Amino acid sequence: MASRALKYYYDLLSQPSRALYILLEQSKIPYEKCPVALRKLENRTTEFKETINRFGKVPCIVHGDFKLAENVAILRYLSRECPDLPDFWYPRENLARARVDEYLEWQHTTIRAQCAQYFLYVWMTPLLGMELDPAKVERLRKNMADGLDLFQRVWLEDGKKAFVAGERLSYADVLAACEIEQPKCAGYDPREGRPQLAAWMERVRQGTNPYYDEAHKILYKFTPKEIATPTVK
Amino acid sequence: MASRALKYYYDLLSQPSRALYILLEQSKIPYEKCPVALRKLENRTTEFKETINRFGKVPCIVHGDFKLAENVAILRYLSRECPDLPDFWYPRENLARARVDEYLEWQHTTIRAQCAQYFLYVWMTPLLGMELDPAKVERLRKNMADGLDLFQRVWLEDGKKAFVAGERLSYADVLAACEIEQPKCAGYDPREGRPQLAAWMERVRQGTNPYYDEAHKILYKFTPKEIATPTVK
């Protein structure tokens, strides 16, 4: 790692940006912070696309002259490039790694899509001066609620498992928690009525603090006080 | 591998099922074929969910008593479990592996979602005795067409790259091609107007035949003859 600069491009309002930020900070991996303001569309400029990430998204890295997007791909790259990365993030043990991988693939079209779609619609629509369609809000809410119920039931086995891959915290937990934090900002508390999910979120937070709270500080500014962490209903 | 049976659950009408099928067959990995008929909802039974895959989906594997879902997680698991798996599928070289990983993460909400959504709506709606909404067809078609254009431009660099990760075929190509084959079945030829994508599809097919054609035989039965492979418009 030492011979080449690792530049990390991120926005702490982006869920996977927070997950990788927590991993980098907690692991004390030397890197250069390159914040990108999504609200100013800094990620959409021709320059950003040509020199940083051809997809115009964050998070992404530039390591020496190697550019890489997709947070899960970056996690795997760092696990090979940084021999000092603590094993728990992406365990080398075969079955534990497979379970972490299974979650990291599964989440794209479930937890990730469901929470992001609800957040984007409910939070962004009024900001754009448009009216919310109550039927659409309810459809997105139900879709997300079903996904969160499934997460609690299948991945946490209703509290029998401490973390997604078993007894140890991994990157899968941090990515999941960062995603599940997001709809709070749109007034939805994912912990309400889901005590095992709430307890798991607190475990992930405790296991990664002070970086977890630091990463979520900006998000919580936009979150109704009564549901911002660590208050659990 | 030898000491424990590897059972592969799949349906060749499922895009990622075909990709893993091609990998297993071409690599001569010993495994037991366990076909699951999605059209008969065999994947939705309580027994299937309890004993095979808790998410009720294919593809998935049971290796000894270890159950694993998500085709990309299975690829990675097999790359560790099967030392004889040819390197090109999931290259060990760091940067090539990162590029394959980047595609495998990127595709979930782009090529995978776009092609599958078009196929499911256009193909399934009439089978369910319902009428297609032309505006929805057009919206899904445009979304998919934009994704395919982006794939050709960014991943194939308009033909400058032979394969997704560079000069060598990898699992990323096979997964992408199996997905891009699917909308043909609903009468849409992804190769039309995209000569570099068409040439790449043929390279993927040549690089994995006879398994590619074998895996697609059932799909092509439902595909209008004039756009079934290998005829390229």
Automatic annotation (TrEMBL), chains A, B:
GO terms for cellular component: cytoplasm. Residues 93-231 form the GST C-terminal domain. Gene3D superfamilies: 1.20.1050.10, Glutaredoxin (3.40.30.10). It catalyses: RX + glutathione = an S-substituted glutathione + a halide anion + H(+). It is an enzyme of class 2 (transferase). Keywords: Cytoplasm, Transferase. Pfam families: GST_C, GST_N. Residues 4-86 form the GST N-terminal domain. The keyword Cytoplasm applies. One of its GO terms (biological process) is glutathione metabolic process. Its EC number is 2.5.1.18. It comes from the Eukaryota. It is found in: Cytoplasm. GO terms for molecular function: glutathione transferase activity. Its main location: cytoplasm. Homodimer. Belongs to the GST superfamily. Theta family. This is glutathione transferase.
